[in-house]
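S.,

Sequence below, as promised.
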Amino acid sequence: MPTRRQFLRNSAILAGGALLTPDELWAARAEQSLMILHTNDFHSRLDSFPDNHPKYAGQGGIARLKTLMDEARSKNEHCLLLDCGDVFQGTPYFNRFGGVPEYKWMNMAGYEATTLGNHDFDMGMEHLAGLIRNHARFGFVNCNYGLVNTPLNTLIQPRHLVKKGRLKIGITGVGVNPEGLIPADLCRGVVYKDPVKSVQEQVDILRNKEKCDVVVVLSHVGFEYPGNQISDRRLAAETHGIDVILGGHTHTFLEAPINAVNKKNSPVIVSQAGWAGLQLGHIKLSFK
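The prediction came back faster than expected:
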């Protein structure tokens, strides 16, 4: 089996219907590659922005996203499609249909896992639990929300495993502090736990017990902040054993993922793909 030290990495962002040139991090022969596609903060943007929109005229929407996904899959045998939360809220589709079309779209697109964003609580946990139970055919991961005394208990798991060819991929998720972001009556019973400690516990399990070849964190804490608030950059720096952190919440547009360094001085890829389906994140891991 490939080991963590053996993978070769290059990365890119698919944006507005075009593939940006990837940064080649290592160049060598590979026995198997894994294409990770990712979105975040979709915010119910099923349609493109209107043609008179001042900034994103005609951009976004599931038709363009699906074209990019299909193109990537046609060129890569092993693809993994992931999301980083805030699937809901932002267009009349959510107000009228309560999230059902969004999850049906994700089923059709072939998403394998997502995490919880603050806006995914906007119609309450009972509503969200019903959506997950009745309409979602993909995994939900979060390791720093205590959900035992909520309707989401058993529906959200601390980790999720996926096999792609000979690769075993471990996925966990982490969420933003609900205080001040989610009304108290919509998240009653949720216990917020230290994100760094919670993520490290799950990464250790994925590495040491599950023997995963790749460990991915789906984050909805934000890319970076000027103060000490937890962010994807801080999460990368204060943990070890993570290969890729895919982020959301801050709607950060990156031309390409960044290369961070963890607490053991090993590399971590950190990425975020804007919002509203305007970009499709694209990271290729190649294993020797």
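Confidence is low (pLDDT under 50) at residues 1-11, 15-30.

Coffee later?
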